[in-house]
Structures are given as structure tokens and as C-alpha cells.
What we know:
Blueprint: E1 2-6, H1 16-23, H2 25-30, E2 33-34, H3 42-51, H4 61-69, E3 77-81, H5 102-112, E4 117-124, H6 127-135, H7 143-147, H8 157-167, E5 173-177, H9 181-193, H10 206-210, H11 214-226, H12 232-246, H13 249-252, H14 263-281, E6 286-289
Helix pairs in contact: 5-8, 11-12
Amino acid sequence: MKIALHIGAHSTDEDRLLKGLLRNADLLREHGTHVPGPSRYRQLLRETMLALIGSDPAPDTREILLDAILEGDGCERLVLSHESFACLPHRIFDEGQFYRLMGKRLASFAELFRADELEIFLAIRDPASFLPAAFAQVRNRSFEDFLGSADPERISWLELLNRLKASVPGIPLTVWCNEDTPLLWGQILHELAGIPADIPMEGELSLVSEITDPTIFARLSEHLEERPPATAEGRMRVITAYLREGAIAEKMVQDADLPGWTDDTVQRLGALYDAELPSIRALPGVRFLEP
């Protein structure tokens, strides 16, 4: 069985991917892809991962989990999504390291499902907006406590990805920038679902609709329906052209406000993030999605 595991990161999704796939659950089942609701597996997986710390899974653990998660037969591909798979938001900088626990959690998961084909999906985000958004999910702690000894200017998605590759060698990893998600939304849904790009899914333009003037979006929808592009690249060009014309400026700006931060802070963090992207694109075993 194939297992597609979407692990966040925090503040890049708000469960929209899972909800988008669940809207298409009946269609996906026809293609052998099962998308269980989060209540069927999130707490169960968390408890299982914690129980596996320092020990190997019992031979029947996988079957017990799948019996609890899956409904019905015919599952060829299982899609799981949880932005707190690695940790809760307040532990993102556990012991001063960025997502210290993510590699360990993935290694345990991979060992548990070693007989299956695992794929990992992860969105990354500019630390200038990631940090305020992630901190907003933390209660009763100051920003300094949240960061601990971590330095915002040393947050590195590249370093994290290299750690993940070392923790689960040989397992394919698909990555994209949160800033590109509206443009990539349809592709991400299809990639997670494991179905061909030419099979229409409900909600492929839902994120584009949120950031586009309604009149312009109506024209875009009409264009795609009456003159559908022959390729995914052509479709992306059409969407980009309409976004240039009708994007709502305030919807395109991501909050980057924290006490003591200045415009220079935001620009420095953004520049460091952008500087890593060419190296991330070139990482062996990592597929980088971009418009």
C-alpha cells in the first residue's frame, strides 16, 4: 500500500488540504485512494509514536492501526495529514533546534509502515511570517520562551530537509513554498491524492478565489471552462495572468508583526529564506513544486 503523509509545517495549511481531499472522497475512492477523517488517526498515531520511543513496534501494530483508521476495502493509497505530526506548536524549537523531533517521528513512522511505500509532503514558509503565525498558536508563553535559544536568522528549512532525508533515507519528499500554495493548490491536491492531473477535483481554485477580485475570478473560471489549457503548465500561466490582473493586495500580504521587529528584520529573514531555495530545489530525493 502507498501512504502519503502530509506533515505541515505549522501555519501553512490550517487543515485545508485535508478538507479539500475530503470534499473529493467519493471520487478518490473510485481510484483506490482513501482519505480518513482526522479523528480516526491523529490521536491514535500520536499515542503510537510516543509509545514507540526507544522500542520497536510489535509485529501486529501496523494491522491494528490500519483496522482502526480504514473503513472498507480496496485501499491502494492512504492519505494522512497532520501539521502537528512532529510536535505541538510550543515545541517547534524544542531545546533550541528547529523541529528537533520531526526526523525521529518520521523514522518511527517509517519503521512502523516499512512494508508500505511512504511519501512525505511538507510546505515551508518564510520565517518572517512563519514565526508570528506559529507563535499565535502558542498560549501563555512569551515569544522569547517560544524561541528558547533559537535564533530567527538561523532558521533553515534546508538544514531541516537534510535531517529528514538522513532520518528516512530513500523515502521521497515533496516540498513547496507556502507563498505559492494558491497557485499550486490543484496540483498539490492531485499529488497527495495520487491521481492523474487531468481528473478534475472539486475546489481546485478555492484558494485562488480567496485572493482574487470576484469579477476577475469569474472571468478566470469561465476561461478555464470554455478554453481549458492542454497542459498543467498552460493552466498555471492562465491562472497567473488573471492573478496579476485581479489579486487583492491585502490578501497577498502575510502578517509579519512581532514586538521589536522592524521592516529590516522582515527583509533579512525573507532574504535568507530566498537564498536557500536554489539549494532546496537541487536536493536529491526532494521534489520541489513551484509555479
